[in-house]
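tool_call: predict_structure(chain=1)
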Amino acid sequence: MGKIKKLYKTFSPLPRAFRVLSWGVGVQSTVLGVKSSLGQLERLDAIITADTLWERRATYEARDFYMRWFADHDLPVYVVSAGSVLQMGAREHVHIPFWTENGGPLMRQCTVHFKIEPIRHKTRELLGFHPSNQPHPKRNAVESWVGFSMDELQRAKGSDVAYICQRWPLLEHTMSRQDCERFLVGLGLPIPVKSACIGCPYRSALDWIEMAEQAPEEFEQACKFDEDNRHNPLKSDGSTAMALYIFKDADGHPRPLREAFQDGTLQRMAERRRQAARDQLALFDLADAMCGEGVCMV
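tool_result:
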């Protein structure tokens, strides 16, 4: 972690690198594109987004809006895809991180297949190289922007290929997700929903409840995907005998998503999350009041 902090705090833009934004269409990466468009960050050479073909409708609406916005600001946007995570996300070697009977998730392989690799292939093409075969671009030929905010500091990792130098401009400017939301609101721009495929096992109870209430057809797709893959062996020889789930409860026990909604488990988990947020806000309000009264004696 200390090494990453040193990297982002001392980063100097690469003068001759090809600057690419890996755009997930979420709040943070969208802010990077907007800041570049407005001259608040260096000019991007390309914005690339990878479509899993199973994103929420609200995500596609945000993507379409900002693609037009970026085009109006002369920033090129490219949409790439490695196929549908709905159709392929339960296959060996490319599967999503299903929760298993013992609670632990399977290794997440979907991000590499559906996100990282397609964006890298397009980046190489834009530089005039084959999508994957040798020769490779020279060292640090690409400055790749990733939209990790201070809330996600632990996710920041260097690139595993020599021709890409990772950069996290939000970390450089110590911006949180809330800072990013305030930035977009201040410009009168829409705030994208959290970007993730519809059936992502890492969705919170709040996410599932919001989906069930606001987009019931999407929630039904997630439930069906969960049920269809309950006893999917993942391996062609059928040697993996474990039940797979896309939801686990507060105790870490995997549960059928539909059942968790019907028996109120999701609602109770979501309410506890909301209450924790309210308690934290109340604590901040109390701290502000005490500070105003000079309790700290500063």
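agent: Confidence is low (pLDDT under 50) at residues 284-298. Proceeding to next step.
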